[in-house]
Amino acid sequence: MSGTYELGTGQRAGAMSESQLLDTQRAFDSVAADYDGPRGNNELIQRMRLTLWDTVCKALPPGSRLLDLGCGTGIDAVEFAMRDYQVVASDWSPRMIERTHDRAAAAGVEAQVEAVHVGVHQLGRLKGEFDGIYSNFGPLNCAPDLGAVAAECARLLRPGGKLVFSVIGRICPWEVGYYLMKGRFKRARVRAARGATAVGMNRHTIWTHYYLPREFYRAFAPHFALDDYRALSLFMPPPYLVEFYRRHRKGCERLGRLDDRLGARPLLRDMGDHFLITMHRR
Ligand SMILES: C[S@@+](CC[C@H](N)C(=O)[O-])C[C@H]1O[C@@H](n2cnc3c(N)ncnc32)[C@H](O)[C@@H]1O
């Protein structure tokens, strides 16, 4: 999401309150109408999206029942529905849920996509059993209590079921270099903050936790075994540098191939704009 979020301000860090959850909800409501444009789905975002799609499809056969946490406008949910998965698509932003509902109807897959206004901090409201749970581009960075999310995922997932999450990482060398060069020192170190950190988007605030993969996994370890994790957009610039990518497309594509080849290697996999982590329920 820092990819999709703009302007980290790093104003303050701490535990996430009800009013912070509402700030985040307002921020995403405010961009829902045009979130499929450059802000939410440019070429660099789409490239990372494909990695999650491939990972989910390799982990679970068509026909599986999936839960999408923080579905946004429903791009992933509708894609999986068109590939014959059943998806419950959840989000904390009611405007995003409307977009998901409309997208599923426009694609003729409303029977396979159920869009529900449920935050990741409200998963206790969901019933049923899923084969897989995925979350793309950092909704879990907005969760007030990751351990509680992990416990709910364990309740909702069948034994052996899969989790596939893309999460905003702590160490993004592109971001540090870019903002240091611009003299924006506070912005350059926003991902170093502990606890909930204010990140600006569209003159609203998204309250975000940044994680190293091992910090993130710690919350899930009581219920889930780690399968794998890899960096997303470590060599490739992060999505908000899409204009740079467009000016240097050939060179950046080479960097993208480096991501594909080296992104799962030890140490490198701990960096990147996002990381993709897969686990299974014990
Ligand atoms: C960067 S967008 C990603 C959307 C979508 N997964 C995608 O790939 O385009 C982050 C999404 O997380 C949602 N979100 C933020 N906080 C949330 C929360 N506490 N519970 C559920 N969703 C949340 C936002 O409303 C937004 O739709």
Write the layout of secondary structure elements.
Blueprint: E1 8-14, H1 18-31, H2 38-41, H3 43-59, E2 65-69, H4 75-82, E3 86-91, H5 94-106, E4 113-117, E5 130-135, H6 146-156, E6 157-168, H7 173-181, H8 185-188, E7 196-201, E8 204-208, H9 213-220, E9 224-232, H10 242-247, H11 249-262, E10 274-281
Parallel strand pairs: 2-3, 2-5, 3-4, 5-6
Antiparallel strand pairs: 1-7, 6-10, 7-8, 9-10
The chain binds S-adenosylmethionine (SAM).
S-adenosylmethionine (SAM) binds next to helix 1 and helix 4.
Keywords: Methyltransferase, Transferase
Protein name: Methyltransferase
Domain Methyltransferase: 67-161
Number of H- or I-type helical stretches: 11
Largest sheet: 7 strands, mixed
Shape: globular
Relative helix content = 25-40%
- In CATH, the topology is named Rossmann fold
Characterization of the model:
The chain is of the alpha/beta class and 282 residues long. It has a single domain (8-281), classed as Rossmann fold. Helices cover 38% and strands 24% of the residues. The chain contains eleven helices and ten strands. It has a seven-stranded mixed beta sheet, sandwiched between helices. The protein is globular, with a radius of gyration of 17 Å. Mean pLDDT is 93; it is low at 1-13. The structure holds S-adenosylmethionine (SAM). S-adenosylmethionine is lined by residues 1, 4, 21, 24, 28, 40, 70-72, 75-76, 91-93, 96, 119-121, 136-139, 142-143. InterPro entries: Methyltransf_25, SAM-dependent_MTases_sf. Residues 67-161 form the Methyltransferase domain. GO terms for molecular function: methyltransferase activity. It comes from Dyella acidisoli.
